[in-house]
Amino acid sequence: MRKWRTVLVDDNRPFLVLARHLLADYPQIDVIGEAYDGHQAVMLAETLRPDLLIMDLAMPGMGGLQATRLIKAQDKPPIILIASHYDDPAHREFVAQVGADGFINKQRYETEVIAFIRNLSGVITHE
């Protein structure tokens, strides 16, 4: 079974604790880092080289859209999944325009993250 080296990014620390706890039940997900804003996400993507980065859309400083643009410009960028409570066609379009690989609603976080990962079988090209 493939392990997805994952970085979680959200400015809400209690949400990160909950996300880590929810994902701990899935052995195919290995959370290797956490960031609290887009600036930290860009740095962790470069240094940790995760396979998957699950990031909040709206954060102070640098949000998920700008961070996604910068991360996707890196050499061998991770798969980026944006998570947000702002689930409407306009926000989904913004997420697609910046190059994110998917969007999930935070209210259905656990089921949508696992469904997303199951759909990615064989996508990772770097070890």
UniProtKB/TrEMBL annotation:
**Residues making up the signal peptide according to the UniProt record:** none
Q: Work out whether the entry's keyword set contains Transcription regulation.
A: no
SUPFAM superfamilies given for it?
A: CheY-like
Q: Which UniProt keywords apply?
A: Phosphoprotein
CDD domains xref list: REC_NarL-like
One biological process term in Gene Ontology:
phosphorelay signal transduction system
Matches recorded under InterPro entries:
CheY-like_superfamily, NreC/VraR/RcsB-like_REC, Sig_transdc_resp-reg_receiver, ST_Response_Regulator
Q: Which domain of life is it from?
A: Bacteria
Domain Response regulatory stretches: 5-121
Kindly give the Gene3D superfamilies that the UniProt entry links to this protein.
3.40.50.2300
Q: Which residues carry this modification: 4-aspartylphosphate?
A: D56
Protein name in the entry: Response regulator receiver domain-containing protein
Q: Which organism is it from?
A: Fontimonas thermophila
